[in-house]
Amino acid sequence: MAKILVTGGLGYIGSHTVVELQQNGYEVVIVDNLSNSEIKVLDGIEAITGIRPHFEQLDICDDKAFQVCLTKHNGIDAVIHFAASKAVGESVEKSLDYYRNNVYGLIQLLTLMRKNDIKHIIFSSSCTVYGQAEQLPIDETAPRQTATSPYGNTKQMCEDIIRDAIISYHDFNAILLRYFNPIGAHPSAMIGELPKGVPNNLVPYITQTAAGLRKELSVFGDDYNTPDGSAIRDYIYVVDLAKAHVKAMQRLLSGSNKSDCEIFNLGTGSGVSVLELVNTFMEATGVNLPYKIVGRRAGDIEQVWADSSYAEKELGWTAKTPLAEVLNSAWNWEKKVRNIQ
Ligand code: NAD
Ligand code: UDP
Fold it and tell me: Which residues of the chain are under the pLDDT cut of 70?
């Protein structure tokens, strides 16, 4: 049974991935500093899988504590690296914090991987690296564009650092996963997204509005060049996304990767507008959602969706969970968190 180190494994995508890894027989060691997650997520994972993953509370930038952890849990076969700060707006305010956590954190991780003879890494990248692509859907050959935020820049820099590390130290290999818009929660409602404060993202804002915590949703813009005027994204179910990590891990560990640094887009292949998503939420849950149209949000792009055919061909993976089911899972999670019957 391979042993996988999951950085940021108590976070939103990390916790769902830990569940899938355990359900596929992997032993999991989580490191997380709880800067954007809560310790009770461990209970949620255990409630689903019946197995409590190993957990070490530490900051990946703290190389001494990290080395102690790697010595304690020796024999790690591979790493999935989720730990990072992810709020685009905050990254503009606190750029140095973002470069430190995301870029320096990765450098520390790769340095310790070398020292401890760990050769495989899966990295959480983002479709933000593509900006507003000229051609839709976006495949992996689309050029990256100049980042519009420090957060986006850290993703590009981290991709480059991993690529360069592979060139320098030949025994490394990596899979870079570029996520589109992850949404939803585990069907058990034992784990889900736990945003701190007012959510920036669309789906948590919707579920919090439906739960009565927010007065109404603001739809940012109805004057885009799209069929209904609202912006279009590729919303991917977090459980489908988590399963892609298992496929990527199987590929790395079996040596069936085609190069030392592979890139996969992870999306559904379909674009959904903000207004379509709002209407699907109301139809799927039967809950009325108050909303108003306001101006565009600064920095937003008009439309993106993935061409995920490479992931389908090479990983044997697709994201097929219907949007209504995904939005219901998000609502069930919100109800559980807020104690709504
Ligand atoms: P999240 O904030 O829920 O999870 C990140 C976890 O990492 C948190 O539990 C946090 O406490 C931990 N962490 C952060 N810095 C750390 C550090 N220095 N040391 C130890 N732990 C640390 O975020 P998420 O949505 O699960 O995202 C996971 C990864 O996927 C991130 O790298 C993010 O940039 C990337 N990503 C997310 C999205 C998205 O929309 N959620 C989209 C594309 C890419
Ligand atoms: N959005 C919105 N109202 C909100 C939050 C988001 O209309 O309160 C829109 C946003 O402008 C974008 C889409 O929803 O078009 C997805 O935004 P999110 O922040 O979830 O993800 P992004 O694609 O920006 O990473």
Answer: none
State the alpha helices, DSSP H only, in the chain. 12-23, 41-49, 63-72, 88-93, 95-98, 105-115, 150-168, 202-210, 238-254, 274-285, 309-315, 323-338
Nearest atom, ligand 1, residue 10 CA: 9
* CA 213 – CA 202 distance, rounded (Å): 14
Count how many Cα atoms sit within 13 Å of the Cα of residue 338 in the half-sphere of its side chain: 18
Q: Is 83's C-beta closer than 6 angstroms to any atom of ligand 1?
A: yes
Q: What is the pLDDT of residue 170?
A: 85
> Do 78 and 249 form a contact (C-beta atoms < 8 A)?
yes
Task: Give the per-residue pLDDT at 71.
Answer: 98
Residue given tokens 């899988």 in the structure block: 49
| pLDDT at res. 125 | 98
pTM for the complete prediction?
0.98
Bridge partners of 181, per DSSP, are: 235
CA nearest ligand 1 atom 1, residue = 11
Q: What is the pLDDT of residues 255-294, one digit of tens each?
A: 999 999 999 999 999 999 999 999 999 999 999 999 999 9
Is 224 among the catalytic positions? Answer: no
Cβ 218 under 6 angstroms from ligand 2: yes
Task: State the pLDDT at residue 186.
Answer: 98
Q: For tokens 């030392």, name the residue.
A: 260
Q: What is the DSSP letter of 297?
A: P
The protein residue with its alpha carbon nearest to ligand 2, atom 12, reads 231
What are 33-44's pLDDT values in tens digits? 999 999 999 999
Q: At what angle do helices 202-210 and 274-285 cross, to 10 degrees?
A: 40
Q: Which residue has the tokens 């703290």?
A: 62
Q: How far apart are CA 10 and CA 32, in angstroms?
A: 7
Peptide linkage before 137 cis (omega within 30 of 0): yes
